[in-house]
UniProtKB/TrEMBL annotation:
Cofactor dependence: Co(2+)
Compartment(s) of residence: Cell membrane
Name of the protein in its database record: Carbohydrate esterase family 4 protein
Family matches, as CDD domains: CE4_ClCDA_like
Membrane topology of the entry: Lipid-anchor; GPI-anchor
């Protein structure tokens, strides 16, 4: 028979193994739809870019707010003087700014360290330029996996997808995008979380004004992502920085 000492020793060893086992890491929530009834979140990816002023001003003229998911170095470097002005203009007009990661890579192809870098660099840029730490991140192409969710959670962010795509980034004509909006509005869902792109001229000048008019005629409130979720847009706020030599891509 096993002695009491032998049994006790085995139990202690087993408990040590159990305690040493790696614990599952938290995964970020994935947002695919709004939750506040009768709201629509108009969101714009891939900026900052040259249509920022037009999109922001069209929204404000209609009493609406949007959400801009920014890259750090995609169409242009976010630290370029003109891009800084665009980000500040959008933010000053009451729109929400959020992360679209630094270089618009497919996040599912990156390592743990690369993911942190992709997220951290654009977060740092937004904190420097307008003094906010974003609470939301949209993965480029909508591609994510559990590692992406793990890193996003560690960085205090939720992963945001959409339930409506205007098709502008894949070549949809103006007429096609308008038809997509009409089709989305017709059954009058409780909410709509849209995907549009700040970098498409026809989105800014033709599709967006049409979408705003149709959505408001249907009785929707056009709000930021955070408002449509009933959550805070930023993890924290601070005073913006002053540009120096470290602000570069």
């Amino acid at each position: 028979m096993l002695s009491q000492i032998t049994v006790l020793s085995a139990l202690i060893s087993l408990s040590s193994v159990i305690l040493a086992a790696p614990q599952p890491r938290a995964l970020a929530e994935v947002v695919t739809t709004c939750t506040t009834p009768n709201t629509v979140a108009l969101t714009f990816d891939d900026g900052p870019w040259i249509y920022a002023y037009e999109i922001s001003d069209v929204l404000k003229a209609a009493g609406a707010n949007g959400t801009f998911f920014y890259n750090g170095n995609n169409y242009a470097c976010i630290y370029d003087d003109e891009e800084i002005k665009r980000v500040k203009h959008v933010f000053a007009n009451g729109h929400q700014v959020a992360s679209h990661t630094w270089s618009h890579d497919d996040l599912t192809t990156l390592t743990f360290d690369q993911l942190h870098d992709e997220m951290w660099r654009v977060e740092q840029a937004l904190e420097r330029i307008v003094g906010v730490a974003p609470a939301f991140m949209r993965p480029p192409f909508g591609n994510y996996n559990n590692l992406v969710r793990e890193v996003a959670a560690a960085r205090g962010q939720e992963v945001v997808i959409w339930d409506f795509d205007s098709g502008d980034s894949v070549g949809a004509t103006v007429q096609k995008s308008k038809q997509e909006y009409d089709a989305a509005i017709k059954p009058h869902p409780k909410t709509i979380l849209t995907l549009n792109h700040e970098t498409i001229e026809t989105t800014a000048r033709q599709v967006l004004p049409y979408a705003i008019s149709q959505l408001q005629a249907a009785g929707y409130r056009l709000v930021t992502l955070a408002e449509c979720l009933g959550k805070q847009p930023y993890q924290w706020t601070t005073a913006p920085g002053v540009k120096d030599a470290s602000w570069k891509c």
